[in-house]
Each structure stands twice: as C-alpha cells, then as structure tokens.
Amino acid sequence: MKQKLNIIKIGGNVIDDEKSLSLFLTDYSKLEGLNILVHGGGKKATEVAKKLQLEPKMIEGRRVTDASNLEVVTMVYAGLLNKNIVAKLQQNNCNAIGLSGADGNTIKANKRIVKDVDYGFAGDIESVDVKTISVLLENNLTPVFCAITHNKNGQLLNTNADTVASELASALAKIYEVSLTYVFEKKGVLKNINDENSIIENINLAHYKNLKDDGIIADGMLPKLENCFVALNNGVAEIHIANTDFLTDKNIQHTRLIL
Amino acid sequence: MKQKLNIIKIGGNVIDDEKSLSLFLTDYSKLEGLNILVHGGGKKATEVAKKLQLEPKMIEGRRVTDASNLEVVTMVYAGLLNKNIVAKLQQNNCNAIGLSGADGNTIKANKRIVKDVDYGFAGDIESVDVKTISVLLENNLTPVFCAITHNKNGQLLNTNADTVASELASALAKIYEVSLTYVFEKKGVLKNINDENSIIENINLAHYKNLKDDGIIADGMLPKLENCFVALNNGVAEIHIANTDFLTDKNIQHTRLIL
C-alpha cells in the first residue's frame, strides 16, 4: 500500500494577509504524515516591482516575465516569501525546507515557446525528480516549493504555482497516495460568484465542461481546474478546492473534483 | 576514517563579476567527493536597497540590518543570488540545493544582543544541524548556503557569511574530515596590501597575533582569521585562503592557517 502524501497549494490571498498566513501555517504544522506546501506569489512581487519602477506587463491575465521581472519574482518568491514561510513553519516545529525547482533539480521546465505572445522567462514544466523529493520526505523534511523552476541550462523560469502543485501531485502519485488541495480565500468553486455559499460540491469532467460552456467557471479558475483533471487522470487520489478551514475540518463544505 | 568534506566560501568580489562567478562555478562543479558552498552577498544587496530608496547603515564596517534591509538581504541573498548560483551549478551537473539556515533548521542563530550598538536583525550562530546536512550530502546533494539564518522563533537573521562557513566547518568536523577554503579576489593574506604577491604562506596563532599587533592584518580580515583559528581548534583539518585558481591547482601560492 502506498504511503499518503498531502500536497497543499496556497494562493496569493492567503499569503498577502499576515494574520491569515500565520493562522494557516499554524494549522499546516499540525498535519501528520508526509506533506508538501506550494505557494504562489501574492501582491508582494507587484509591490516590489513598482518600487523598483518596473511596470508589470500582463497579457490575458498572465504576467509577462522579462529579465528584470524575473529578478523580482526570484527575489520575492524564492527569497522573501519562501524563507519567511519556512521560518514560521520551523517556529511551529514543522521541519520545512524551502525549494525552487532548481534546488536538487526537483522541477525542470522549458521556456515557453513564443507563438502569438512572448511571455518571456515563463516556464512550462517538463519533469519532476521524484527521487530527490522522496529522500527529503523520508527524512522528515517538509518541502516548501515556490513557483520558480529552471531549465537545467542555467536559466531560472517563472512558473504558475497551481501548475507546480498539480505537476508535483501527478509525478508523486507514482509512489504515494496523493491528496492535492488548493487553499484560497473562498469556500470552493462558486456557482454564483456573488454568493459565497453557492459552493459546487462535486465536479467531474463532463460537469466541468458544462460549467465552462455556461460561463459559470471562468478566468483563473479554468487552467486550475484543467490541471486538476490531468492530475486525476495521472493517478492523484483526491483533489479538493477549499478555504483555510478545510485543514482542520475535512467535513466543511468545499469543492471536490472527481473523474 | 572520516570521509572528506570540502567547504568553500566565496566572497562578494567573486560574485559581483558575472564572468568570474561563472568560471568559479564551472571549476567548483568538477570537485569530487562531498562539497558545501557558502556565498556572501556582494554589491547587489546595496544596489537593490538603493533602488528601493533605503539608505544602507554601516557601523564600524558592519551593516545594520533594520526590518526593511532584512527584507532586501533575504530577497537578494536567499532569492536572487542563491537560486542563480544553484541553477548554474545544475547546468554543470552539480546537484546543488540552496539553503538558508531556516531550511531544515540547519543553522540556528540568536539576534545579536544590543550592547553599545544595535545591529538590528543580525544573527550570531548558536547551533548547526549536522544530521540534516549529512542526509543531503549522503544523497549526492551539494548544499549551497546563503548568509541568512533564523532563530527558530520565526525570525530570519542576517549573518556574516565567513562565520557561516567557519561554524559549518566546526560542526561538521565532528563527522567529516573538513577542509575549509575562503576564496576571494586576492591570492591570500598579504604582508603588503599594495603588493599582490606578498603572500603570507603560513599563519599560526602566535604569528597572527604579531601580524595583528603590527597592523599588517586589519579590518575585515581580522574576524575572518579569528573564526578560522576557532575552527582549527574545533578539529577542522585544514584552512586555506586563496583566489579562485586554487580550486584547480592546489599547489598555487596561497595562505594556509595552522595551529
């Protein structure tokens, strides 16, 4: 029987508020068994870029990462946010170890090919080194991944944090029974964006396609959910989308993805 | 018999110049056996601090780290420099893993006590977790430490990189035969600061005290050498101060510290 592994991804909104981040990390530290945390960037990168007089460039809701902005996200994601999260987990006796995909060559990516749009130093994940990650897990370390990867050719790459989480889940599902949870500020996927309690409790692929066609699911939620269905197909045991309360109460209302 | 372990610390001047850093990392990647790299900060932190309109505060040649400057050094040392060094080592097939002292609780420090001067968030090292570091080494990973530590109470701390190297060496000497090398832009400790070839080849503690009294060794070299003699007393097998050529030619003229 495979050992259980929890992969939890936290988004920008949980990170931006110091108090909710601190509460989350306290709850996270109490999780038993094997755990991996993946974190996004939050507003801090945009804030630092602005202070450095860099204009953030967005195309269709995606950040364009030129060389200067890559420096900023590397500083903020891999430095400031990752190390502060690790230090707070250590305070709670969770033996966290902060990683980018370059560290231990854990996540290798390719610079996104320019078709219509040049996203700059954006990385699409090619492979995950399951062996190195499991060495860390089996030595009671809790990997904390930021959304920076590399191409094994000396180039760091900015990578979508949701994708980092689902690719880690897919790869690690070969040797662990993986539960993947996306934690954000809402209780789950909402049927009505203006009603916080209109949570869709179960979504399968056919259901997802309908919701997408009807425009009920849109924007940033689309790639997140599509990654999830790929991960389920790759053998990830369960995927949940929930708010921070889910960590301490598995029976709380939230969205579960099913095949 | 103990296994050999090389700990090499590179200073600001090797890091500041992209070409010499790249050459160094190529040579470093060819080292056999167990290796740890420690890097300082270089000019980049001051550059970023200036761009963010933070005035660097120095007292007696030491940086005063207020909360804003701690953010900057965490971004630059643990993020930008550490991850770029790791990515370049990975390119050369050296399986590097970047760490701050918070990661895996590898280096615990205490905030420096305020006596005459308040250095802010400056850390004095209390302990090194030899077990976690040796798990990494024994799994063919090469730890790359930046000069950020933590107090195990959620606080990151800015720590002198020379001290990080000597404290790692002292602690790891319990289980490894440690060779510690400080690599910088000069060929060794110079008798005459204006003569690049006036290298003092061997320095023992008595000799060091004379050189200090005569003012031949001064400024930043003093704490570096004092740390070294502590490390030798703690069982570190050998300590060298050399330029980057020493990596590929152990017979090149340089300074060796002896008890």
From TrEMBL, chains A, B:
The record marks K9, K224 as: Transition state stabilizer. One of its GO terms (molecular function) is ATP binding. HAMAP family: ArgB. PANTHER family: N-ACETYLGLUTAMATE SYNTHASE, N-ACETYLGLUTAMATE SYNTHASE, MITOCHONDRIAL. It catalyses: N-acetyl-L-glutamate + ATP = N-acetyl-L-glutamyl 5-phosphate + ADP. CDD domains: AAK_NAGK-like. One of its GO terms (cellular component) is cytoplasm. Pathway: Amino-acid biosynthesis; L-arginine biosynthesis; N(2)-acetyl-L-ornithine from L-glutamate: step 2/4. Its EC number is 2.7.2.8. Residues 5-243 form the Aspartate/glutamate/uridylate kinase domain. Substrate binds at G41, G42, R63, N158. It is found in: Cytoplasm. The keyword Nucleotide-binding applies. GO terms for biological process: L-arginine biosynthetic process via ornithine. Catalyzes the ATP-dependent phosphorylation of N-acetyl-L-glutamate. This is Acetylglutamate kinase.
